[in-house]
Amino acid sequence: MPVDRSHIRVKAMLVATHSDGARHLVSQHGATAENPLGFHRLIGGGVELGETHEKAILREVQEELQADVVDLAFPGVVENIFRYDGELGHEIVALYCGRLHPEPALEGGTLTESDGSIVPILWRPFDDDDVSAPLYPSAANRWIRDVVSHAAAQGA
After folding, report:
1. Measuring CA to CA, which residue among 74, 55, 66 is closest to residue 103?
2. What is the largest CA-CA distance in the chain?
């Protein structure tokens, strides 16, 4: 994930919920200076000039996973200021939630980045206290936990 230090990047990312309601899809990335054990990142990518963030998330999911998004909802925006191998990065991230059709397999899945690189994906549990890899953008973590708590309360 190269960092463009020249400006703030606008991203659209998806909390893609599994049909069991207990996990969501993330991309799995290797070690960095800040995360020697690697990290997880929400699915999605950059918003292109002249493109809305809603169209961007639908395009990114189609390009990376060859899937459509069902029940797309837009809960809000988070700001992500981070370091990647010592380099400063800054993103404004439009967060979406929804389900994927078709839904990727529970294990062994990948996505294809715009540069052609293949990245492993995995279903990360919402109850992720035992997961050692951090989830980025980190500002989304509180929102994700709030949504899961709200859904659990609605189902109870």
Report:
1. 66
2. 48
pTM for the full model?
0.89
Confidence category of residue 121, pLDDT binned at 50, 70, 90? very high
At 36 the pLDDT is 96
Per-residue confidence (pLDDT) for residue 69, from 0 to 100: 98
Q: Please state, for a pLDDT cut of 90, what percent of the chain lies above it.
A: 81
State how beta strands 23-29 and 135-136 pair. Answer: unpaired
Q: Which two tokens stand for residue 20?
A: 């069991």
| Six token digits for residue 133 | 């890899």
Alpha helices by DSSP H, 13-139: 53-65
The pairs formed by 139-147 with CB atoms below 8 angstroms and a separation of 24 or more are 139/78, 139/79, 139/80, 139/93, 140/13, 140/15, 140/42, 140/78, 140/93, 140/95, 143/75, 143/76, 143/78, 143/95, 144/15, 144/24, 147/15, 147/75, 147/97
- In the block, tokens 């899937």 appear at 67
Give the separation between CA 116 and CA 7, rounded to whole angstroms.
Answer: 24
